[in-house]
User: Fold these one by one.
Assistant:
Number 1:
Amino acid sequence: MRKAVFSINELKKRTNKVLLFHSGTGKDSIALLDLLHPHFDEIVCVYMYIIKDLEHINKYIYWAKKKYGVKFLQMPHYAMGSYIKHGFMGLKANPKQKLYTLADVNERAVLKTGIPWTVFGFKQSDSMNRRLMLRTYDCEATINFDTKKAYPLSEYKNGDVLRYIKNKKLLTPINYGGHHQSSGTSLADINFLLYCKYKFPNDYKKIIEQFPETEHKVWQYENRGNF
């Protein structure tokens, strides 16, 4: 992780506090927090939730708090604006709901904490759009000094991050299944829903209470070919 450490050292010259957008259970977040921890006096992890207080995610958040002594700022995911506006998966619709972006959530986190610099786990290997975006930045495509955002994992691939986690004996990230680049809590991902249903039934109950049509989505999947 030489290039990541180089980027972090450059960031350290400009601030002793950072925000880290943290997915809770994802590999990039787990690795980044470990990389950042020795270099900054304060790290506030920003966790964007779709369904708050899922048990299997809270276990990872508790682990991170205990190991690194960091704070977590939990905020609604920017996708919730669209979900509410359109009544996604049975959620009560409000056509007047304002839509939000990741930049909006970031701005709110900066205002709440007073910390101007933010770290993200974006990698060039994630997508073509991210590759084009990150390659325009300084410090080997890892820092945007104008917006005060840093991307230390920019030039790494998923395998590099997983090897770092294994070598450092960190908590194993959750893989809900499938062949996705990311294993986020997407309600469109049947693997996420099935994981919760069979491994964390209380989490599944919370999901269907808030998004009742997800139960029908799972039923259709499990009964495909039988009707």
Number 2:
Amino acid sequence: MISIYTWFGYALPLRELIILIKQAGFDGAMIWWRENNEKKDYSESIKTARDMDLFIENIHAPFGGCNNIWFDNISGNEQAELYLEVIDGCAEYEIPTMVLHLSSGDESPPFNEIGLNRIRQIVENAEKSNVNVAFENLRKTGYLEYVLGNVDSLRAGFCYDTGHHNCRGYADEDLLSKYGHRLMALHLHDNDGTNDQHLLPFDGTVDWPKTMRQIAGAGYTGAIAIETYNTGYEDLSPEEFLLLALERANRLTELI
């Protein structure tokens, strides 16, 4: 299965993006939860996807304020409640996985027992709702190690982001050997190693043959999921961009 994020750089209604993604030939899509931090009713868009036989693979939780999860204050409690809301959304719309950021920026707070207990509560609710929680590698991998090392649940796993791995200063760290057995989601995109550019695969410096071999070697059987934006491809229409993204995704599948 090949999927793509519905936000790939074109300001169109979600339902229209879903139609374009399916018409381009993708099997699945991933969506963001909330827009401009406002609750949305996704029922019409998801019904459109299901009517077109387009699989909604996961929901990405909002990442604004994600550092709050580590603070012993009201903002921390509110952040945890937001993630519980996303789990409820996954359950309501029968979407199997929530993707979650554990930190943001270079000055993120230290991980601690307060945040870990909140995350354990989130995972416990996910277990009750039959929803997976996939934690993404970001600027600092210590958060990922701390959480996955202390949350022992079949519902808690890893979302592997190739772009972050390539440009955040730990490209030599073998994340897939460490966490591949808990791999639940992919964010496949490229960059030149200097910044998180979200280029299409093969337009940057990611070692795609090695990466795809490692993903296959981890036993991953989920979607080949593209998380790219049209920055640098602005001359392409949405339809043209999607066709190019699909061609790159097909090239990735040939490397497995």
Number 3:
Amino acid sequence: MTLRVGVNLTWIAPGRVGGSEEYLTRQLLGLPTDHGIDLELYCTPAFTRAHPELAARFRVVETPFDRDNRALRIALEHSWLAGRTRELDLVHHGGGTMPLVGKRPTVLTVHDLQYLALPEYFSDGRRRYLERMVAASVARATVVATPTEFVRRTVIDAFGAEPEHVVVVPHGVPRIERPPDSDLDEVRSRYGLSDRRYLVYPAITHPHKGHRVLIDMLGSLDDDTALVLLGGIGAAEPALLEAVAARRLAERVVRTGRIPATDRDALLAGADAMVFPSEYEGFGAPLVEAMELDVPVVCSGATAAREVVDDAAVIVDVRPSAAGAGAVWAAAVADARRRRDDLVRRGRERRRAFTLETSGRALAAAYELAAGGAG
């Protein structure tokens, strides 16, 4: 029997919602073809243009508007989407919330609950909206899917959700071919890194990402190691630039902004280590991407990062804002350099838990659980 599933992607403004967009699109690509699931994607025309690989595989129903407007998106979910999906067997809402109307059964993906752990990083309006809507959405959902056991337990504890109806659908990370040495040399030269040792952090400068501690770390390293910061500009960008200037480290900090994936992969592959001081993660795909490219990982022990890396990284348990944290991170980098071969080996093993196929099979099981549980 074929299960007709509609996936609500109307909340995605391509390139704006970061890891949650990547997480969902990758697991959809990993869906097995032999599970009898007939998928329809409900999205903006901009999403279709950004993800032609999904449009080539699944039926796409585009919204009548192609605008990045939250109020309009919410209105579409409660009217246009509800009407279009009325005859389907199941609707999957991938953005952490779901409309207050519409057909059950439903699968709701909750990527993280950062607003509960770090409310100071959210505006009052945004926090109040999430407090109201996430709780109501979890209560209405037939099945809640989370990327890690950490988020699963948080959902159960925060909202009293039934444990058997909250399941882990892990992030699926595609295979990444390590660039040849000639490409690595060319990219390093282009970014001013020829013959330099460097560390990489791929993250938008959001406050919770902890960039500042890495500036303090540079001051504690006993060589001229450079720090390459990949990713777009967030609210903490001014504070970051101020810290770089105050420590007189401009020559050792390479700020690339958004760059092509080929450049990003080459810079990561050539690094001594990837440093990842984020205070909060629901998953943390860059951790797996670094392991895929045989790059040692030094990461914060906060929340889901520890679960993702397991024993395949050097873990720092000091908060980025703590006194002396920069020196602790510097020591962790030195440890990663000493243990490089061992960490690379462990990373190769750990990475196998996060394939597209593993993620897709877990999503298919969540759909089947929701359809059976509603029946």
